[in-house]
Design goal:
alpha/beta, three-stranded mixed beta sheet, 2 domains, about 20% strand, globular, Glucose Oxidase, domain 1, single chain, 9 helices
Protein backbone atom coordinates (compact mmCIF):
# COMPACT_ATOMS: atom_id res chain seq x y z
CA UNK A 1 0.00 0.00 0.00
CA UNK A 2 1.34 3.41 -0.97
CA UNK A 3 0.19 6.50 0.90
CA UNK A 4 0.45 9.90 -0.74
CA UNK A 5 -0.48 13.36 0.41
CA UNK A 6 -3.62 14.96 -0.99
CA UNK A 7 -1.94 17.26 -3.55
CA UNK A 8 0.14 14.44 -4.99
CA UNK A 9 -2.94 12.24 -5.22
CA UNK A 10 -4.75 14.93 -7.19
CA UNK A 11 -1.86 15.08 -9.67
CA UNK A 12 -1.79 11.33 -10.04
CA UNK A 13 -5.59 11.11 -10.46
CA UNK A 14 -5.39 13.44 -13.43
CA UNK A 15 -2.62 11.35 -14.92
CA UNK A 16 -4.61 8.15 -14.46
CA UNK A 17 -7.76 9.59 -16.04
CA UNK A 18 -5.92 10.93 -19.09
CA UNK A 19 -3.75 7.89 -19.74
CA UNK A 20 -5.56 4.95 -18.16
CA UNK A 21 -5.50 2.75 -21.25
CA UNK A 22 -1.76 3.28 -21.77
CA UNK A 23 -0.76 3.75 -18.16
CA UNK A 24 2.06 1.20 -18.30
CA UNK A 25 4.13 3.64 -20.35
CA UNK A 26 3.42 6.68 -18.16
CA UNK A 27 5.07 7.79 -14.95
CA UNK A 28 4.86 11.40 -13.73
CA UNK A 29 8.34 12.67 -12.95
CA UNK A 30 7.05 14.45 -9.88
CA UNK A 31 6.21 11.13 -8.24
CA UNK A 32 9.28 9.06 -9.13
CA UNK A 33 7.40 5.89 -8.18
CA UNK A 34 8.17 2.33 -9.32
CA UNK A 35 5.58 0.49 -11.38
CA UNK A 36 3.69 -2.45 -9.87
CA UNK A 37 0.80 -2.63 -12.32
CA UNK A 38 -2.57 -0.95 -11.91
CA UNK A 39 -4.14 -3.96 -10.20
CA UNK A 40 -1.61 -3.77 -7.35
CA UNK A 41 -1.42 -0.01 -7.04
CA UNK A 42 -4.02 1.33 -4.59
CA UNK A 43 -3.74 4.92 -3.46
CA UNK A 44 -5.10 6.40 -0.29
CA UNK A 45 -5.51 9.98 0.75
CA UNK A 46 -4.99 11.50 4.15
CA UNK A 47 -7.67 13.91 5.34
CA UNK A 48 -6.97 15.72 8.61
CA UNK A 49 -4.56 12.96 9.61
CA UNK A 50 -6.90 10.05 8.79
CA UNK A 51 -6.23 7.66 5.91
CA UNK A 52 -9.11 6.94 3.50
CA UNK A 53 -9.58 5.08 0.24
CA UNK A 54 -9.37 7.32 -2.80
CA UNK A 55 -12.37 8.23 -4.98
CA UNK A 56 -10.75 7.16 -8.24
CA UNK A 57 -8.36 4.42 -7.09
CA UNK A 58 -9.53 2.03 -4.42
CA UNK A 59 -9.67 -1.73 -3.73
CA UNK A 60 -13.14 -1.97 -5.30
CA UNK A 61 -11.83 -0.74 -8.64
CA UNK A 62 -14.71 1.74 -8.89
CA UNK A 63 -14.35 5.41 -9.72
CA UNK A 64 -16.63 7.63 -7.62
CA UNK A 65 -17.62 11.09 -8.86
CA UNK A 66 -19.43 13.60 -6.68
CA UNK A 67 -22.21 15.36 -8.62
CA UNK A 68 -23.56 17.42 -5.72
CA UNK A 69 -23.02 21.07 -4.88
CA UNK A 70 -21.93 21.98 -1.37
CA UNK A 71 -24.47 22.33 1.43
CA UNK A 72 -23.88 24.62 4.38
CA UNK A 73 -23.57 28.19 5.55
CA UNK A 74 -24.88 30.67 2.97
CA UNK A 75 -25.21 28.10 0.21
CA UNK A 76 -27.19 29.45 -2.77
CA UNK A 77 -30.93 29.45 -2.17
CA UNK A 78 -34.12 29.61 -4.20
CA UNK A 79 -35.66 33.11 -3.95
CA UNK A 80 -38.48 32.37 -1.52
CA UNK A 81 -36.77 30.10 0.97
CA UNK A 82 -35.20 31.08 4.28
CA UNK A 83 -31.45 30.88 4.55
CA UNK A 84 -29.88 27.68 5.87
CA UNK A 85 -29.16 28.01 9.59
CA UNK A 86 -26.54 25.87 11.36
CA UNK A 87 -25.87 26.08 15.09
CA UNK A 88 -23.23 24.20 17.04
CA UNK A 89 -25.09 22.87 20.08
CA UNK A 90 -21.93 21.14 21.32
CA UNK A 91 -18.34 21.76 20.29
CA UNK A 92 -14.92 20.59 21.42
CA UNK A 93 -14.09 23.37 23.86
CA UNK A 94 -17.53 23.07 25.47
CA UNK A 95 -18.38 19.37 25.42
CA UNK A 96 -15.56 17.43 23.81
CA UNK A 97 -17.87 16.51 20.91
CA UNK A 98 -19.30 18.30 17.87
CA UNK A 99 -23.10 18.26 17.43
CA UNK A 100 -24.90 20.68 15.12
CA UNK A 101 -28.53 21.67 14.62
CA UNK A 102 -29.65 22.46 11.08
CA UNK A 103 -32.71 24.42 10.00
CA UNK A 104 -33.26 24.10 6.26
CA UNK A 105 -35.69 23.38 3.48
CA UNK A 106 -34.94 20.16 1.64
CA UNK A 107 -35.15 22.06 -1.65
CA UNK A 108 -31.70 23.59 -1.44
CA UNK A 109 -28.41 22.58 -3.08
CA UNK A 110 -28.51 19.24 -4.96
CA UNK A 111 -31.76 17.54 -3.98
CA UNK A 112 -34.46 15.19 -5.21
CA UNK A 113 -38.17 16.05 -5.27
CA UNK A 114 -40.82 13.64 -4.13
CA UNK A 115 -43.96 13.65 -6.29
CA UNK A 116 -45.84 14.99 -3.25
CA UNK A 117 -43.79 18.19 -3.48
CA UNK A 118 -46.09 19.45 -6.26
CA UNK A 119 -48.85 16.91 -6.93
CA UNK A 120 -51.35 16.41 -4.12
CA UNK A 121 -52.08 12.79 -3.23
CA UNK A 122 -48.90 11.35 -4.74
CA UNK A 123 -46.07 9.54 -2.87
CA UNK A 124 -43.88 11.15 -0.24
CA UNK A 125 -40.15 10.56 -0.38
CA UNK A 126 -40.20 7.67 2.12
CA UNK A 127 -42.89 5.93 0.08
CA UNK A 128 -40.92 5.83 -3.17
CA UNK A 129 -39.34 2.35 -3.59
CA UNK A 130 -35.55 2.19 -3.24
CA UNK A 131 -34.75 1.17 -6.85
CA UNK A 132 -35.72 4.71 -7.87
CA UNK A 133 -32.65 6.06 -6.08
CA UNK A 134 -30.13 3.84 -7.87
CA UNK A 135 -29.47 2.74 -11.41
CA UNK A 136 -27.63 3.06 -14.70
CA UNK A 137 -27.93 5.95 -17.06
CA UNK A 138 -26.22 8.63 -19.10
CA UNK A 139 -24.86 12.15 -18.63
CA UNK A 140 -25.74 14.27 -21.64
CA UNK A 141 -24.18 17.53 -22.81
CA UNK A 142 -26.90 19.99 -23.78
CA UNK A 143 -25.45 23.53 -23.58
CA UNK A 144 -28.03 26.27 -23.08
CA UNK A 145 -27.97 30.01 -22.52
CA UNK A 146 -30.12 32.41 -20.51
CA UNK A 147 -33.84 31.45 -20.53
CA UNK A 148 -33.44 28.99 -23.40
CA UNK A 149 -35.88 26.11 -23.42
CA UNK A 150 -34.95 22.44 -23.19
CA UNK A 151 -37.39 20.67 -25.49
CA UNK A 152 -38.20 17.12 -26.42
CA UNK A 153 -36.48 17.66 -29.77
CA UNK A 154 -33.34 18.81 -27.92
CA UNK A 155 -33.30 15.61 -25.89
CA UNK A 156 -33.93 13.41 -28.91
CA UNK A 157 -31.03 14.98 -30.81
CA UNK A 158 -28.71 14.81 -27.82
CA UNK A 159 -29.38 11.26 -26.64
CA UNK A 160 -32.31 9.66 -28.44
CA UNK A 161 -30.16 6.79 -29.68
CA UNK A 162 -28.40 6.26 -26.34
CA UNK A 163 -31.26 6.42 -23.85
CA UNK A 164 -32.66 3.15 -22.53
CA UNK A 165 -35.91 2.40 -20.74
CA UNK A 166 -35.37 2.73 -16.99
CA UNK A 167 -32.34 5.01 -17.34
CA UNK A 168 -31.26 7.77 -15.03
CA UNK A 169 -30.87 10.81 -17.29
CA UNK A 170 -28.53 13.62 -16.18
CA UNK A 171 -28.40 16.82 -18.24
CA UNK A 172 -25.35 19.10 -18.33
CA UNK A 173 -26.33 22.54 -19.65
CA UNK A 174 -23.20 24.19 -18.26
CA UNK A 175 -25.12 26.20 -15.66
CA UNK A 176 -23.59 24.35 -12.71
CA UNK A 177 -20.57 26.55 -13.33
CA UNK A 178 -22.53 29.67 -12.33
CA UNK A 179 -24.34 28.15 -9.35
CA UNK A 180 -24.43 31.08 -6.93
CA UNK A 181 -27.00 33.44 -5.46
CA UNK A 182 -27.95 35.80 -8.26
CA UNK A 183 -28.36 35.11 -11.96
CA UNK A 184 -28.47 31.32 -11.67
CA UNK A 185 -31.99 31.07 -10.28
CA UNK A 186 -33.93 33.61 -12.40
CA UNK A 187 -32.06 33.15 -15.69
CA UNK A 188 -31.46 29.40 -15.95
CA UNK A 189 -32.62 27.52 -19.01
CA UNK A 190 -35.28 24.94 -18.27
CA UNK A 191 -37.44 22.05 -19.37
CA UNK A 192 -40.74 22.68 -21.15
CA UNK A 193 -43.66 20.22 -21.47
CA UNK A 194 -42.38 18.55 -24.64
CA UNK A 195 -39.28 17.46 -22.70
CA UNK A 196 -41.49 15.83 -20.08
CA UNK A 197 -43.45 14.05 -22.81
CA UNK A 198 -40.19 12.75 -24.29
CA UNK A 199 -39.01 11.42 -20.91
CA UNK A 200 -42.31 9.65 -20.34
CA UNK A 201 -42.26 8.13 -23.83
CA UNK A 202 -38.69 6.87 -23.39
CA UNK A 203 -39.36 5.40 -19.94
CA UNK A 204 -36.81 7.51 -18.05
CA UNK A 205 -36.72 6.58 -14.36
CA UNK A 206 -35.12 9.71 -12.91
CA UNK A 207 -34.01 12.99 -14.49
CA UNK A 208 -31.31 15.23 -13.03
CA UNK A 209 -30.03 18.55 -14.32
CA UNK A 210 -27.77 21.45 -13.45
CA UNK A 211 -30.59 24.02 -13.38
CA UNK A 212 -32.77 25.51 -10.66
CA UNK A 213 -35.92 23.43 -11.08
CA UNK A 214 -37.58 20.70 -13.10
CA UNK A 215 -39.36 23.53 -14.95
CA UNK A 216 -38.19 26.65 -16.69
CA UNK A 217 -37.76 29.37 -14.03
CA UNK A 218 -40.54 31.48 -15.55
CA UNK A 219 -42.94 28.54 -15.21
CA UNK A 220 -42.40 28.67 -11.44
CA UNK A 221 -43.14 31.29 -8.78
CA UNK A 222 -40.12 33.23 -10.05
CA UNK A 223 -42.36 34.15 -12.99
CA UNK A 224 -46.08 34.85 -13.41
CA UNK A 225 -47.23 31.65 -11.73
CA UNK A 226 -48.81 30.49 -8.50
CA UNK A 227 -47.14 32.16 -5.47
CA UNK A 228 -45.44 34.64 -7.78
CA UNK A 229 -44.08 36.60 -9.40
CA UNK A 230 -41.25 36.67 -6.90
CA UNK A 231 -39.21 38.81 -9.29
CA UNK A 232 -41.75 41.04 -11.10
CA UNK A 233 -39.05 43.11 -12.83
CA UNK A 234 -38.36 40.10 -15.04
CA UNK A 235 -41.63 40.67 -16.95
CA UNK A 236 -40.29 43.62 -18.91
CA UNK A 237 -36.85 42.06 -19.22
CA UNK A 238 -38.32 38.90 -20.73
CA UNK A 239 -40.42 40.91 -23.19
CA UNK A 240 -37.30 42.68 -24.40
CA UNK A 241 -35.26 39.48 -24.52
CA UNK A 242 -37.98 37.58 -26.43
CA UNK A 243 -38.74 40.30 -28.96
CA UNK A 244 -42.08 41.32 -27.50
CA UNK A 245 -43.55 38.09 -26.10
CA UNK A 246 -45.40 38.43 -22.80
CA UNK A 247 -44.11 35.98 -20.20
CA UNK A 248 -47.69 34.94 -19.39
CA UNK A 249 -48.13 33.82 -23.00
CA UNK A 250 -44.78 32.06 -23.13
CA UNK A 251 -45.36 30.22 -19.84
CA UNK A 252 -49.12 29.89 -19.33
CA UNK A 253 -48.97 26.90 -16.96
CA UNK A 254 -47.66 26.49 -13.43
CA UNK A 255 -44.85 23.93 -13.25
CA UNK A 256 -46.18 21.70 -16.03
CA UNK A 257 -43.03 19.55 -16.20
CA UNK A 258 -43.17 18.83 -12.46
CA UNK A 259 -46.80 17.86 -12.92
CA UNK A 260 -46.22 15.57 -15.89
CA UNK A 261 -43.15 13.69 -14.71
CA UNK A 262 -44.32 13.24 -11.12
CA UNK A 263 -47.65 11.80 -12.21
CA UNK A 264 -45.69 9.38 -14.41
CA UNK A 265 -43.47 8.29 -11.51
CA UNK A 266 -40.33 10.08 -12.77
CA UNK A 267 -38.37 11.75 -9.99
CA UNK A 268 -36.39 14.96 -10.54
CA UNK A 269 -32.95 15.93 -9.20
CA UNK A 270 -32.32 19.69 -9.21
CA UNK A 271 -29.04 21.65 -9.01
CA UNK A 272 -26.67 18.91 -10.14
CA UNK A 273 -23.02 20.01 -9.96
CA UNK A 274 -19.68 18.87 -8.61
CA UNK A 275 -17.64 16.79 -11.05
CA UNK A 276 -20.40 16.78 -13.66
CA UNK A 277 -18.07 17.58 -16.55
CA UNK A 278 -15.85 14.59 -15.74
CA UNK A 279 -18.62 12.10 -16.55
CA UNK A 280 -20.47 13.98 -19.30
CA UNK A 281 -20.86 11.85 -22.40
CA UNK A 282 -20.53 8.64 -20.39
CA UNK A 283 -22.81 5.86 -19.24
CA UNK A 284 -22.51 5.45 -15.47
CA UNK A 285 -24.18 3.93 -12.44
CA UNK A 286 -25.78 6.42 -10.05
CA UNK A 287 -26.73 6.39 -6.38
CA UNK A 288 -28.65 9.17 -4.62
CA UNK A 289 -30.53 7.85 -1.61
CA UNK A 290 -32.56 10.23 0.58
CA UNK A 291 -33.11 9.92 4.31
CA UNK A 292 -36.12 7.88 5.39
CA UNK A 293 -38.20 10.98 6.11
CA UNK A 294 -41.81 10.23 6.95
CA UNK A 295 -44.08 12.30 4.68
CA UNK A 296 -41.06 14.05 3.21
CA UNK A 297 -41.52 16.33 0.19
CA UNK A 298 -37.96 15.78 -1.05
CA UNK A 299 -34.44 15.47 0.26
CA UNK A 300 -30.94 16.88 -0.05
CA UNK A 301 -28.80 14.12 -1.59
CA UNK A 302 -25.22 13.20 -2.34
CA UNK A 303 -25.53 12.32 -6.02
CA UNK A 304 -22.69 9.97 -6.97
CA UNK A 305 -21.75 8.63 -10.41
CA UNK A 306 -19.78 5.39 -10.48
CA UNK A 307 -17.69 3.83 -13.25
CA UNK A 308 -16.36 0.27 -13.05
CA UNK A 309 -13.84 0.07 -15.88
CA UNK A 310 -12.51 -3.34 -14.93
CA UNK A 311 -15.96 -4.86 -14.40
CA UNK A 312 -14.65 -6.87 -11.46
CA UNK A 313 -16.87 -5.51 -8.69
CA UNK A 314 -20.16 -7.26 -8.09
CA UNK A 315 -22.98 -6.75 -5.62
CA UNK A 316 -23.04 -9.61 -3.11
CA UNK A 317 -25.53 -12.44 -3.78
CA UNK A 318 -26.65 -12.62 -0.14
CA UNK A 319 -25.07 -15.95 0.73
CA UNK A 320 -25.04 -17.00 4.37
CA UNK A 321 -21.84 -16.67 6.40
Amino acid sequence: MIQLDYNTVQLYQIAIQETREEFSTFQPAELALPWWGMEDFVMTITVRGIEFQDNLDNPMGIEFYNLSHRFGYQCPNWPYFRDVRIERMHYMAKSGVLSQTITTTMHVTTHIDAPAHVVQGTPFIDEVPLPHFFGSGIVVSLPKKKWEQITGDDLEKACGKAIRKGDVLIINTGWHKVYEDGDYFPYCPGFVPSAADWMIEKGVKVVGHDTQANDHPLATAIGPQRNGPLLPHLAQEYKQWSGGVDWKDAFPEWEPVHQKIFKAGILGIENVGGDLDAVTGKRCTFAFFPINWDRGDGCIIRLVAMIDRGQKYRIEPGEAF
